[in-house]
Each structure stands twice: as C-alpha cells, then as structure tokens.
Amino acid sequence: MxxxxxxxxxxxxxxxxxxxxxxxxxxxxVLVDVDAEKLKTTxxxxxxxxxxxxxxxxxxxxxxxxxxxKDLARRVSERGTVRTLVNNxxxxxxxxxxEMTVESWKAExxxxxxxxxxxxxxxxxxxxxxxxxxxxxxxxxxxxLGMFGNPAYSAAKAGLIHLTRSIAVEYxxxxxxxxxxxxxxxxxxxxxxxIQTNPKVLDEVKQWYPMQRIVEVSHVASTVAFLASxxxxxxxxxxxxxxxxLLAGSPxxxxxxxVSEYY
Length: 263
Ligand SMILES: NC(=O)c1ccc[n+]([C@@H]2O[C@H](COP(=O)([O-])OP(=O)(O)OC[C@H]3O[C@@H](n4cnc5c(N)ncnc54)[C@H](O)[C@@H]3O)[C@@H](O)[C@H]2O)c1
Known about the structure:
Rossmann fold, globular
C-alpha cells in the first residue's frame, strides 16, 4: 500500500517546500494546484531535486469546486492511501472592509475556509483507512489569531483554526490527528501585489516582529512536517504559530506601554 501526502496549493512557495519535506516520509506527494503552468514547473523542479524518483504527482484542481475535489479524491485513491492532508492553498486580495465587495468576501471565505472542509470531506475515508498515523495539517495564519488587516481572509483563517479543533475532536477516535500552523509574514508570491503598492512593505513589517525579521518558508514547512510526523503522535487540535514572535507582542508597543528603552 502506498502512503500518500496531499498538499493543496502545492505549486506555491510554501506548498512546494512542504511537499519536498514530506517526500522523505511518504511514498509519494500529490501536488494539487489550480495553476497548471506553475504546477508543471514546480513538479519538474521537485522531481529533479529529488533525483527523478517519481515521488511527486501533479493534480490540477480548483479546490473551491466540490465536484472537482470529489474527482480529485477518486483519482488519488487509485494511487494509494492518504496518510497526510495539508490544506495549504490560500490567498487574499481585499485589505480592508471598505475595499470589500460581497463577491470578494465570499471568494476569500470559499478559498481560505470552505475549500479545506471540501478537501477534508473528500479525503476523510482514505485517512480513516490509513493504518499509519493519519493526520491533517491546516495552514492558517497569524491573521486567524490577531488583527493584521485583510478581514475576510482573517475571518476564514480563524474559521480554519476552529475547523482544526472540530476535526480533531470528531475524528480522533479514528486515529486521525488534526493541527494547524499560523505563519507570520513569509516572502512569497502572495506579497507581490502589496510590494507593487509599497516596495518597502517587507522591511517595514519587520519592526513589529520581536525577532526583527520575517518567517522562512522552510520553517513553516518543517513545522508542518513535524505535526504530520510520529514525533507529534499525541498532538492534536492545536494551532502552532510560526511567526518570529509576532503574536507574543511587539517591541514598539511594549516600549510605549512600559516607557522603557529596553524593548
Ligand atoms: N506568505 C505569507 O506571508 C503567509 C502568511 C501566513 C499564511 N500564509 C498561508 O500559506 C499558504 C500558502 O501561501 P503562499 O504564501 O505559499 O502563497 P502562494 O501564492 O505562493 O501559493 C498559493 C498556491 O495556492 C494555489 N491556489 C490558489 N487558489 C487555488 C484553488 N482554488 N485551488 C487550488 N490551488 C489554488 C495558487 O495557485 C498557489 O500556487 C496560504 O494558505 C496562505 O494563506 C502565507
């Protein structure tokens, strides 16, 4: 029996690094993405860096489409049993409530919350049938735990953190664990639009981080790989920030409130 990992948004920066790390502990990793061109390039890159072991399976799918997700699950079931599902695909455009339309609100909730439910539902039977430590890891965001703009995305990510707990509580009896990660700022294509508006944005946000830097893609991926591993075999229902301390607090705020230069 082949044990698979399924990574949505697998052609993106964080998704491909998660896929690369999970390849070490799974027979194959299914890269799911809606962007066919990007998927082709990423698949070729991952295959060549793993020495052409045919460890990666590219699957084009719009995960907001329930029928497409069911078809995807059917195709994947022909390749093996899903041990790990990583709900990683996500994106945001509308920065504030004022800029939001009904359509943009619904689209962000659809991609960042509803699609993860669809994927979990579609792969749940395969996860239940997996005898080897099945688990789900949801890629949420610091935005799901604090207010950093992008309200629909943030509401969806907060919902995703709660979905994490729901899956953990209801499916624990099948041996399925479910956890989330909440990354802070990571330099990926997701920031391109904001960088176009403000080329200094990634430097400016650093001041709010206790570590005075943003998050590495590899650190998000290694946390996902840890949560999916046997080492985390008794961890379920948690959301682990990978945020260089952002959610702990901000030095400029501490400096102002404590009236102390030591922050
Ligand atoms: N980059 C950050 O600062 C940051 C911070 C916190 C959380 N995150 C989260 O990390 C995850 C990955 O983001 P990233 O920064 O790697 O972005 P990215 O844009 O590089 O990757 C996202 C991928 O998802 C795919 N995708 C989008 N809509 C899809 C759909 N409907 N169906 C299938 N695939 C779809 C895109 O084609 C893309 O390849 C997202 O959930 C994002 O919210 C990112």
